[in-house]
From TrEMBL:
GO terms for molecular function: ATP binding; sequence-specific DNA binding. Residues 122-351 form the Sigma-54 factor interaction domain. This is Sigma-54-dependent Fis family transcriptional regulator. Pfam families: AAA_lid_14, HTH_8, Response_reg, Sigma54_activat. One of its GO terms (biological process) is regulation of DNA-templated transcription. Residues 1-103 form the Response regulatory domain. The lineage of its organism: Bacteria, Pseudomonadati, Pseudomonadota, Gammaproteobacteria, Moraxellales. The keyword Metal-binding does not apply. Keywords: ATP-binding, Nucleotide-binding, Phosphoprotein, Transcription, Transcription regulation.
């Protein structure tokens, strides 16, 4: 009755069902914009109603009332398809926020083109990509935390942004932070903010990224890079939806959806004691795994042609085309760096081709490896590896900790800097030394933030 009075004061018309059977009957008689259910009902569980609504009325968001601190049940409700949950006793501000999100409809402009945004952003017709797009559509409707896993270069950031765009938080901020790119000393201030004078160099108040994400989504990329101490602080913010800036004695209410991603296996890290079990349990309510490029078949050529059109347009050159040998070559690669690696290969091919056709010779580099073929077990003991001294030297070294793509970008940037320094930053001469077009050099300099005014 108190809930109904509160909603009435908010201008919301409601029907109150006293048991599960009555609630199901109401759904056959009326069309509802949202539903709130208690977990404990006289003739069943609120989870039963959640499953019923999700199955028969998928466009009606349903939230669940739970006893304070009962996170196991709350997460079970979210996994069953609940839109969100609220702890009892009910916080009126939280109730208002939940209903505001539930009654909000994402901007229809997202799908004004010939195809839905998820098909335009996630290119591919393969079965794994169709399954991925379907999962994203379902997950976007919820308020549940999402954990995205996948190899480096598969596009975890793209998927996170798409979930936000398809959600009812799409008109609020989408805030991104790479947990591995900020030092431990600065990370707490970046996440939670600080007040002026709380430490040396704090010359003014700073709003943290979590607060900036209020009403929207917070994407924590490479969350496994957080220290255990920082994980504990993040857990409190996620559970209680409150933060306290450094140096402040006041807590700030924040409403955000957390989306996290990692290329590491978080479950293994939990077993090793490197990742908190309670935080893993809290952020891993909904999970999405992005398939590696090598498992996507003809999507490789679809993406390749997409990148060719995109790069040629950006560089202002006539559209190029892959010949049959180049297409066959691309289909045979292993793609350790996934979509990011394919884009780099295509960029190289466009740069090196002098006419409108891109040949296999334009795509080949020393770092591209074909898909490894399985070795018959009976021959494994007699295989003898022979390699040149240079190959042996590389094999003896440790693999780059930052991953292949970041390592190659570091090398590429170093080569560009050497060429520029040797020509006293004469970019035209540097392009000649590197045997590339001036336009291609400009493109790469922009990528690394090295571009200056035109000569």
């Amino acid at each position: 009755m108190l809930m109904q009075m509160t909603l009435s004061r908010m201008g919301i018309k409601t029907h109150m069902a006293h048991h599960l059977k009555q609630a199901k009957h109401f759904f056959t008689e009326y069309k509802y914009d949202a539903c709130i259910t208690d977990l404990n009902l006289p003739d069943g569980s609120g989870l039963d109603l959640v499953k019923h609504v999700v199955q028969h009325y998928p466009k009606t968001p349903i939230a669940v009332l739970t006893a304070y601190g009962n996170m196991d049940i709350a997460i079970a409700a979210l996994k069953a398809g609940a839109f969100d949950f609220m702890n009892k006793p009910i916080n009126q501000q939280h109730l208002h926020q939940v209903l505001q999100k539930a009654l909000h409809v994402p901007e229809s402009a997202l799908n004004t083109a010939d195809s839905p945004i998820e098909e335009r952003v996630l290119i591919g017709h393969s079965a794994p990509m169709k399954k991925l797009r379907s999962s994203i559509q379902k997950i976007a409707r919820s308020q549940a935390p999402v954990c995205i896993t996948g190899e480096s270069g598969t596009g975890k950031d793209v998927v996170a942004n798409l979930i936000h765009l398809l959600s009812n938080r799409s008109d609020a901020p989408f805030v991104v932070i790479n947990c591995g790119a900020i030092s431990e000393e600065l990370l707490e201030s970046e996440l939670f903010g600080h007040v002026k004078g709380c430490f040396s160099g704090a010359l003014e108040d700073k709003v943290g990224l979590i607060q900036l994400a209020d009403g929207g989504s917070l994407f924590l990329d490479e969350i496994a890079e957080l220290s255990l101490a920082m994980q504990a602080k993040l857990l409190r913010a996620v559970q209680e939806k409150k933060i306290r800036p450094l140096g402040s004695d006041k807590e700030i209410d924040v409403d955000f959806r957390i989306i996290s991603a990692s290329h590491q296996n978080l479950e293994h890290l939990v077993q090793q004691g490197k990742f908190r079990h309670d935080l893993f349990f809290r952020i891993h309510v909904m999970d999405i795994t992005i398939p590696p490029l090598r498992e996507r078949g003809q999507d490789i050529l679809l993406l390749a042609n997409h990148f060719i059109a995109k790069i040629c347009s950006e560089w202002g050159i006539e559209l190029k085309k892959l010949n049959e040998d180049a297409e066959a070559f691309l289909m045979k690669q292993y793609y350790l760096g996934n979509v990011r690696e394919l884009q780099n290969i295509i960029e190289r091919g466009i740069t090196l081709s002098d006419d409108q056709l891109i040949d296999i010779a334009h795509l080949q580099t020393s770092t591209i490896r074909p898909i490894p073929q399985p070795v018959p077990i009976e021959h494994t003991q007699s295989i003898e590896i022979q390699a040149s001294p240079q190959t042996t030297m590389i094999a003896d070294n440790k693999l780059p900790e930052e991953g292949l793509e970041e390592y190659l970008e570091k090398v590429e940037k170093e080569v560009l800097m050497n060429a520029l320094n040797s020509t006293h930053w004469n970019r035209t001469l540097a392009a000649k030394k590197l045997r590339m077009s001036f336009r291609s050099l400009r493109y790469r300099l922009k990528k690394f933030g090295l571009d200056t005014d035109d000569e």
